[in-house]
Amino acid sequence: MAKNRVLCTLFALVLLISFGGCGKDVSTDDTTTTHTTTGSTEEVELTVSQTDSQKGQSSTKTTENRSSSKTSNKTSNKTSNKTSNKTGTATGSSSTVTATTTTKAPSVTYALEPIKPEEYYGLSELNKMPKAKDMVAAYHRIVESAEACTTVIPMDGTLTGDEIKKVFFFYRADYPQHFWVNGSLDYSTKDGYVTQIKLSYGMSGNDLAQAKQSFNREVQSLVSLAATGKDDYERELLLHDALAQRAVYRDGKNGHNAYGAIVENQAVCEGYARAFQYVLYQAGIQCLMVDGKSVNPSTGHEETHAWNVAKIGGQYYHVDLTWDDANHEKVSVMYPYFNLTTEQIEQSGHVIVMENGYTLPNCTATAENYHVKNGSRLTSYTIDTVAALLKAQPNGAHVFVVGNGADFQNWFQTNVKEIAKKAGVTQSFSYSMVNIGNEFCVWITPA
């Protein structure tokens, strides 16, 4: 089944403000606002005057359709060797924030032990079922046959059609690295039990051999980044950012598999999810792929979608790499869907739709959520709190607002001059704001 992209709306605002300067004194109440709407893009021009400042500074507010701009904006910027360039992370409470940076890889690297196939989640679930012995035997037979690109696989006649479909579904959920295996399954039965199955392949022969070499090379390049992370969270974050910056959202022959995202640098949500699952495997992190639906915020329509559940610090979390791929000229990656609870992912409009009795773990932990981890999940906000985050992340502060995002946007614009002062900016500056849902990335930059 095709996985269509869920559209996200991003908002960008840029404004230049002067502290002091030449010219006549102007009242701070002297503000002019002009709205101009053209098609689906709204432009707002603001002329904001400050005491002892020049008049006539302007800003442009543009609401962009994420899907319409994603391919054109990212194709020119991404190459096969592009890696994460995230430049700041805030940690601490809402009032005390400590900056850390990952612009330069630390000198220390850590040995990574990939997840072993016998530890895969789907296999462990099959082992709990009433006919576990027969189902696990069929699972391993499928794995071995897929590795050899065997088309016709004899079965021993112990499983029904529904049972073999369940086994195949669990195998597919466990093996994103088998990117050449198509998702269709044919089988023959005798007296209601399966006697053989047939697999089909998108690649074989020399083409597959070369594709495997390219895939393994690119996977190792990505996973080498994770070796600089000291724990599950840091490794997950490094790989999340690297994949988001690498991949362009575009369908194609391999758009639904890990090869498309990792080697060809283009995929849809299923390709993103399968790629993320496998690189986390290689970094020693348990990861599952989730089939589901989500409400497209641009159209209000429900569409098929795919994302992941990852085991971080011993607890499971939902993470949606596709929706975190911001695709904005000022910020390529954001974190509104980085390590959520089941309740939070469902509240965001995601609907879990797993077939064939595949049961996901219930995710309830919050400690490894990006914004909880970095002190940037705000139930309330003050000038001091936001200024501290900006000081900690001068290249873009990520803030998740619990509540009405539009209220935060208006509050920030109203108080931006005081926020800038608290952040240590005393001269003219420009500011920018980009959001996905309730996460805002904001900058205050001295002119």
How would you characterize the overall build of this protein?
This protein is α+β, with helices and mostly antiparallel strands and 447 residues long. It is 32% helix and 25% strand. The protein has 13 helices and 20 strands. It has helices at residues 66-75, 121-126, 132-148, 161-174, 205-226, 232-246, 258-262, 269-282, 321-324, 342-347, 370-373, 383-392, 405-422, and strands at residues 9-17, 31-38, 41-48, 59-65, 89-92, 97-100, 152-154, 186-190, 193-198, 248-249, 266-267, 287-295, 302-312, 315-319, 338-340, 350-352, 377-378, 397-401, 429-436, 439-446. The strands form 6 sheets. Strands 4-1-19-20-18-17 form a 6-stranded mixed beta sheet. Strand 19 (429-436) and strand 20 form a beta hairpin. Helix 6 packs antiparallel against helix 8 (269-282) and helix 12 packs across helix 13 (405-422). The N and C termini lie far apart (50 Å). Residues 1-12 and 18-103 have low confidence and may be disordered.
